[in-house]
Amino acid sequence: MSETVAASSARGGTAGTPGAGRWWILAALSLVQLILVLDSTVMNVALPSTQANLGFTDADRQWVITAYALAFGGLLLVGGRLSDTLGRKRMLLVAMGGFVGASLLGGLASGFVMLVVARALQGVFGALLAPATLSLLATTFTESSARGKAFGVFGAVSSSGSVLGLLVGGALTEYLDWRWCLLVNVALGVIIVAAAAVLLPADERGQARTHSDPLGVFASVFGVFAVVYGFSAAEHSSWTSTVTVGSIALGVVLLALFVFVETRVAHPVLPMGVVLDRNRGGAYLMVAIAGIGMFGVFLFLTYHLQQVLGFTPLATGVAFVPMIGLLVIGSIVAGGVLLPRMGPRVIVITGLLLAASGTALFTGLTSDSGYAGGILPGLIITGAGFGLVFGPAMNLATHGVAPAQSGAASAMVNAGQQLGAAVGTALLNTIAVSGAAGYLAGQPRTPDLATQATIHGNRVAFWVTAGVFTAGAILCGLIIRPGRDLGTTTNDNTPAPAA
């Protein structure tokens, strides 16, 4: 870490920002992260109302969520590279302006296509915004004790923001209109731009220097898109169709090409030294797995609460509040207290297994299950598990990374969460819809039978989600180092060792 601080200081960076000013910077950056993560779920609770207003199908509903996550995750590495070369403050201000414009477009959408395009544009500007935010945090807080507290708070905001989006979305949908779930970003964006312009230090001189890696950009963006589209296509075309198999296969090939290219170009979009450290690689895997399951849980529980139990949008958002509390507490305690004393491996394994256990409880839901006895226990356990994952992950993802590579490292942790959300939403929605269709096959369609079919499809998806969390606990346990070592330090030119 001392190498990182020294390198940053030599360049006039923000490393070691002194005094109370850095805590105001933390507040501003946390607000940026909040609006980004909040927008990944704020439309979930509003989806039934949006669907009724714009008239799209159950099969298409996932694209309101996936369009944002797909564009966000697919372009994050590009955003990270631009943040490192064009300047983090400059990128944050420009990208926030674009994000506000896209939100305004979505709030005024007159049809499904316009809404999805606006959500995709939100994702594009979010991909430029997120790496600048996290890399500014990483270079502002370099002392071990302050860094742990800062990343604990930031991790709590990042993880709880997804659930807070459900609460905000519910309130806005019920008392105003679903469109305000997007229009609220206009007001928040103005506050963020004003605060960032005043609080953030100027970008380093000479930083506006770009290097081209067009093949890497192409392979990463279209590889991600092909994989997610393949999972989505399975809902319409089956898992064995040419479209499904071909899209997934093409995506895997393009992502393999991306890795190949990045190890051979002079100025890669993603320097391999950033990801080859075991703990950093484990952090990216953690947030991807958490993203897969978390957004699936949000989607299916939202529809269960509103369509099966008859909750209003606001009541649905309030129903997720216990998860918010456990996420915040778990993330702050894990990142600021437990991580320095226990190291990351035990904390993360425990968190993922808690998430698996809580999700497994949702498989027992029926049309007669109440909130207190049927849903609340799972929310509490799952929320505690997510809190233990996100706090350490945010810290590990940027620990020991040289300032010139902090944008790429920051992009990877955000990319993991957003791509996990995109893949998880597409995959689990496909599994749930397929399960419901199989339940209805050959039977007369009645309202009661349709409800039972929906519950059955969700139950299958919850079991798959619990399995993903369990597999993630095993994989992260094998990858992350034992003990309290947080990882190796990189420099601008030399990759970190793999182990």
In summary, what is this structure?
79% of the residues lie in helices and 0% in strands. The protein is mostly helical. It has 2 domains: 20-201 and 267-479, MFS general substrate transporter like domains (Growth Hormone, Chain: A, Up-down Bundle), CATH 1.20.1250.20; 212-266.
Describe the structure in your own words:
With 499 residues, the protein is an all-alpha fold. The chain folds into two domains: 20-201 and 267-479, MFS general substrate transporter like domains (Growth Hormone, Chain: A), CATH 1.20.1250; 212-266. The chain has 17 helices and no strands. The longest helix is centred in the last third of the chain and has 35 residues, at 406-440.
Could you tell me the CATH topology label of the largest domain.
Growth Hormone, Chain: A
Question: Which sequence of SSEs, written as H and E, runs from N to C?
Answer: HHHHHHHHHHHHHHHHH
How many E-type strands?
A: 0
CATH architecture of the largest domain: Up-down Bundle
The main β sheet shows up as: none
Q: Which class best fits the helix and strand makeup?
A: mainly alpha
Percent in helix: over 70%
| Number of alpha- plus pi-helical segments | 17
Report the uncertain regions.
1-16, 492-499
Q: What is the domain total for the residues?
A: 2
Q: Give the N-to-C terminal Cα separation.
A: 17 Å
What is the residue-averaged pLDDT?
Answer: 78
CATH superfamily of the largest domain: MFS general substrate transporter like domains
Strand fraction equals under 5%
The first-level CATH class name of the largest domain: Mainly Alpha
User: What overall geometry do the principal axes of the alpha carbons give?
Assistant: globular
